[in-house]
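Dissemination and training. As part of the outreach component of the grant, students in the summer workshop were shown how a complex can be specified as a set of sequence lines and then modelled as a single object. The example used during the hands-on session is reproduced here so that future cohorts can follow it. Participants entered these lines:
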Amino acid sequence: MSLLEVEDLHASAGGREIVRGVDLRVAGGEVHVVMGPNGSGKSTLAHALMGRPGTTVTSGSIRVDGTELVGLPAWRRARAGLFLALQQPIEVPGVLVEAALEEAVGEDAAGEVPRRLREEAGAIGFDERFLQRALNVDLSGGERKRNEVVQLGVLRPKFAVLDEIDSGLDVDAVRAVARRIERATSEWGLGVLAVTHFHRLLRELRADRVHVLVGGRLVASGGPELAEELERTGYGAYGAEEGAA
Amino acid sequence: MSAFGPERAVALGGPAWLRQRRSDAADELAVMPMPSEKEELWRYTPIEELHLDDYAPRPSPGSDPASDEADRALGAAYVQGLAADLPARAALVATIDGRPVSVERSALLGPVRVGGLDVLGTEEGVLGGVLAGGDALVRLNDAFHPDVVVVDVPEHAVLDAPIVIVHWCTAGLSTQGSGDGAQTDARAPACFPRTVVRLGAGSSAQVVEVVAGAPGAGRGLVVPITELSAGDGAQLSYAALQVLGTEVWHVSRLAAVAGRDATLRTFTVGLGGAYDRSRTDALADGPGSRTELRSAYLGTGSQVHDVRTLQDHAAPRTTSDLLCKGAVAQRSRSVYSGLIRVRRGAVRTNAFQTNHNLVLDEGAHADSVPNLDIEENDVRCSHASTVGPVDEDQRYYLESRGIPPSRAEQLIVLGFFDDIVQRSPVPALVGRLRREVVRRLAAVSSEDG
Ligand SMILES: Nc1ncnc2c1ncn2[C@@H]1O[C@H](COP(=O)(O)OP(=O)(O)OP(=O)(O)O)[C@@H](O)[C@H]1O
Ligand SMILES: [Mg+2]
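and obtained this result:
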């Protein structure tokens, strides 16, 4: 079984330390959820894991099955089995999702990509004609998120960091996406680290652990019931001010 | 001594009106200054490095038949390859050094006339109707174009398949004579393709013009002029591809005019050449007319690409939309300079101009110069331009899918071109354009560390 281990991770962006000591252990097949107020560092954590240039890991360790990812460029982390669904997927004019994924999986598997894309699109009710558009260009917010899930399904990584995959999705799409990801946890043992603001994602996606990120630190962890509680009570109890990070 | 004297121009022959036109142009040329970098229209260009004495016009009366044979074979092979890429075509005209050597007409042509000057019969004055005036380089073409490729579309004729014109231009030093008396001419060939496309009212047609030469053949000068006119309500789609060798200078003019409610689309793609200039002047002359200008260039090595555009509005309710995209790699550079001109009376004009440049290497450089000249109040004009390296976020996004940076960059650059190539006014050319870009990008790609 695969293992994603994050140890005492510190990361800064724009000259500021934003992630200030995060520890996580996600096993293949598990679903971990990160919740936290706006600006608490969730996306920065996600980018630190994926290796975005400009997000600097100042100390700590990120390992997938024992392989140290800190210091590796993003593409090598992807090849080590990590995937990030971005909170705001980037527009890449003129590049079709099919072309990008064929490149990503390499020559031997490229032939399978068109069929796999159609399957994955079908699984979440994503209209196939969107696959003919350049990456994220002329797609609505929700369509972009679904496009990320389609790519996840084709690439079959060991671990997926989902940064607010549910934001912008309509209720039916949230259900379809949650189901697809849930199925992936058993289908190939996908481990999930899902950042979300909403408990509804977890109706169909069974969470093993819920973590609370405030001020760049995990201040609490618990079972799925924690997500429900947070949605009712907010983050005040965890030292976050009302309406601010 | 210049090889561009009046006697040599007149010796090219043709009907009396054309010989007169040639000789007038050569006389004017003799007293005209060559363009200078001090002129706004030639700013940022190496034009002052052009010395006519280094060139001699092709075809020349005494050119060696053997070398002509070799040129012919190379040109024919190129034309065949292109023809295979454009199987559904209405006609295919091939010229060598501006002189038609083959004209293939299909049944799709219907009443459309395509061919050399001979298709015009006794008609005079087919030239200069759209491109009037001009500088020394225009005169040079006026004096030395050996023939004219004519596309004449009668009123209300509708052509769905493209008419394809290929100009094969020879380059490199040639051998004159044979045997012991053979000597190499120190002057590189200069060639002057000339094309006229006329669409009658209510007609529609697509025209592809390719200017090509053997890669690595050596120096040369190619100065093509194409005049396009779309009559009232006509729809003209035109695409030009330049794939000359990288030592050849290419200085082209495309002049276009759209009549009332006509739509005129142009796409110029510059890939070859040492100095590659394409100037497109599009006049929205009739009320309600629309012009769409597209240009793309890719610079490698030490190439200079230079795109000049004029969106000229002379009538009410006219629209022009320009999109120009280019990338410069290695030590190459590019200039884009475009003017939107709204003349008095051209009320309710809409004019848009967008230029995007990717600078792929530190040694490369791109200049972008948008200009407006607006004499009317009730108009809507906008321009936007960007110059910069490949977007970091785009690269990161692709990398996060497992794509190494150099391949990610290639995909992004190819996508940058695809974005404009897919909108080619002549859809049949998309595949060919794409392959030309892919091949050149592959040649400049770097390895991943
Ligand atoms: N490149 C940067 N330069 C400066 N500050 C940054 C940079 N990136 C993020 N920040 C700041 O770091 C903090 C955390 O940002 P981050 O995007 O990680 O928050 P988040 O928890 O994902 O918030 P949200 O719930 O709104 O998505 C914010 O205050 C943000 O303004
Ligand atoms: Mg965020």
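The interface with chain A takes residues 391-394, 396-405, 407-408, 411-412, 414-419, 422 of chain B (CB under 8 Å). Students were then asked to discuss how this feature might be tested experimentally.
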